[in-house]
Write a structure and sequence with these properties.
Helix content: 10-25%
CATH superfamily of the largest domain: Nucleotide-binding domain of ferredoxin-NADP reductase (FNR) module
Bound molecules: adenosine-2'-5'-diphosphate
Shape: globular
CATH class of the largest domain: Alpha Beta
Number of strands: 11
Largest sheet: 6 strands, antiparallel
Strand content: 25-35%
Order of helices and strands: EEEEEHEEHHEHHEHHEHE
Radius of gyration: 19 Å
CATH architecture of the largest domain: 3-Layer(aba) Sandwich
Amino acid sequence: MQDQATTKPAEANPNAPTQETVLSVHHYTDRLFKFRITRPARFRFRSGEFVMIGLPQENGRPLLRAYSVASPAWDETLEFYSIKVPDGPLTSRLQKIEPGDKILLARKPTGTLVLDALTPGKRLYMFSTGTGVAPFASVMRDPETYEMFEKVVLTHTCRLKAELEYGLELARDVLDDPLVGEEAREKFVHYASCTREPYPVQGRITTLIEHGKLFKDIGAPPLNPAEDRVMICGSMAMLQSVKAVVEAAGLKEGSNSSPGDYVIERAFVG
Ligand code: A2P
């Protein structure tokens, strides 16, 4: 039996997650929702990073999962975009949160989908599927993104039309953003496609790249390492496929310690 007297209370651990309050929740479909929580004054992150979040547990260790921060770095609150997995250990409970509920937020964000991991270039492509759009919600509102690149392209591919709504909302809002709106109106391109329902653009991003449709539609040359930088976020299968296409174009992977032409990160799944 555990000796309660020797168990360190959570508050005494300086690395323990902080308890934050849910401010708002919005459900898009029966599989997708976003929510906003309070942000501790000392919580700092770089656009594109993820952090562990979870729910307090009555018994046992709290269950934490990696979530990309979907709000810009200057925002006073933190936004997250999540899938709902009916029997997912965390999301089956997380999807029921309401304003006023408590969320655990780890103290240290991290990740590779950051501008620091890319060398300078002309165009930035952010290739996303499903909830993989979340980190780019942050990157696309970062003034540095528009300082570094002449063209900023977010592609978002989902199975169904309704699943594109969050990305469409972001693309509309960035044009009126107080900080980057003017530059976004000039440089930002949102390119949405659907794979399992009729939609103006149909098909996987890999096919749209390989067939050249993406580049034709946005008026850019095919991917090339001299000008293009890429960030990729989606399922494991999507990452592998897009990585192969990007590497075939000659781009080399970068990291925080050794910046390169492209970076990848797996979207949160369960
Ligand atoms: P598809 O409908 O053809 O499977 P998921 O919900 O499975 O993560 O998929 C989100 C989107 O990513 C879907 O449009 C899906 O297309 C697409 N996708 C899935 N696997 C890949 C892959 N290996 N390469 C490119 N796109 C993919």
